[in-house]
Amino acid sequence: MSGRPSRGVLLVVLAIALGAFAVAVAAAKPANRTYVTAKCSGAAFKPKSIVLTCGDAGLTATRLQWTQWGRKKAHGAGLGVEKICKPDCAAGKVGKAAMKLVLSRPRFCRQDGKRHFTKVHYKWLPSAPGEGPNQGTIPLPCSLISR
């Protein structure tokens, strides 16, 4: 018997090493992601909807499709939904129209240890369904994230 390992042992060691490498790569990817606080708490990656005004959920973006999602910016489009407060918010209706979003200002949030976009710019296409502005910028601060 020689002091060299058999071919079977080498294959097993190689398989274990490749498996460990794959696990390490997969575990490293989420650390490079930038998230957004989509439902007024927590972290979401490429969410299908975002609540833009957390106080009353009067402005949301739904059916989102993301054309770009990077470390510094994300671009998407979907259906904007706005509460129309005429005669008042309780009796008002809901307006819907196409909407574009740009997420930006990534910051590390100590609340969950992840990087989040902390600003969203929205633009109604072609215009807002209610009397609100046709576009605007809304902060999504880390303080929205619950521990």
Molecular structure report:
The protein is α+β, with helices and mostly antiparallel strands. It has two domains: 1-31; 34-144. Helices cover 17% and strands 41% of the residues. It has one helix at residues 7-31, and strands at residues 34-36, 50-51, 59-69, 74-84, 93-109, 114-125, 135-139. Strands 1, 2, 3, 4, 5, 6 and 7 form a seven-stranded mixed sheet that branches. A hairpin with a 4-residue loop joins strand 3 (59-69) and strand 4. The longest helix is centred in the N-terminal third of the chain and has 25 residues, at 7-31. It is elongated and about 90 Å long. The termini are far apart. Residues 21-29 have low confidence and may be disordered.
Quick structural overview:
This protein is α+β, with helices and mostly antiparallel strands and 147 residues long.
Blueprint of the fold:
Layout: H1 7-31, E1 34-36, E2 50-51, E3 59-69, E4 74-84, E5 93-109, E6 114-125, E7 135-139
Parallel strand pairs: 1-6
Antiparallel strand pairs: 2-3, 3-4, 4-5, 5-6, 6-7
Key structural traits:
alpha+beta, 1 helix
* Quaternary organisation: single chain
Low-confidence stretches: 21-29
Number of helices: 1
Helix content: 10-25%
What is the CA-CA span between the terminal residues? 60 Å
Q: Give the beta-strand count.
A: 7
Overall pLDDT score:
84
| Radius of gyration (Å) | 23 Å
DSSP strand (E) fraction?
35-45%
| Shape label | elongated
Order of helices and strands: HEEEEEEE
Structural domain tally: 2
Question: Main sheet?
Answer: 7 strands, mixed
Protein structure class: alpha+beta
